[in-house]
From TrEMBL:
Keywords: DNA-binding, Transcription, Transcription regulation. This is Metalloregulator ArsR/SmtB family transcription factor. CDD domains: HTH_ARSR. Residues 1-109 form the HTH arsR-type domain. It comes from the Bacteria. InterPro entries: ArsR-like_HTH (IPR011991), HTH_ArsR_DNA-bd_dom (IPR001845), HTH_MetalResp_TranReg (IPR051081), WH-like_DNA-bd_sf (IPR036388), WH_DNA-bd_sf (IPR036390). SMART domains: HTH_ARSR. Coiled coil: none annotated.
């Protein structure tokens, strides 16, 4: 991962709500309500924006902006079903970030 990519992730996670969202999505069963069976099969771990918004207590537009920015840098994946958009963690990208960040810190002895 390039330094600018690492910085983009760190910047995203410096916002408490975005960090909370990433943490909440690690336990999607605690967030979603009555997840349609088609989504459970086709997009396991997906959580509706409305459920995330309710947990965060912020406006839907703010949450959508946060989710979109986290998706653009690779932390989240999304899938649209009808009028609803579902998000889940991109575990591979998160693992890569953690490994690259740890390696960078070790190399720089910070």
């Amino acid at each position: 991962m390039k330094n600018e990519d690492l910085l983009a992730v760190l910047k995203a996670l410096s916002n408490e709500t975005r960090l909370n969202i990433l943490c909440w999505l690690s336990e999607p069963d605690k967030l979603h309500k009555d997840l349609p069976s088609e989504i459970q099969v086709e997009f396991p771990g997906g959580v509706c924006v409305a459920d995330i918004q309710e947990k965060a207590g912020l406006a839907q537009s703010v949450i959508s902006t946060y989710l979109s920015s986290m998706q653009k840098i690779g932390l989240l994946e999304s899938r649209r079903y009808g009028q609803w958009t579902y998000y889940r963690r991109n575990e591979g990208a998160i693992d890569n970030f953690l490994e690259d960040f740890a390696a960078g810190m070790q190399a720089k002895k910070l």
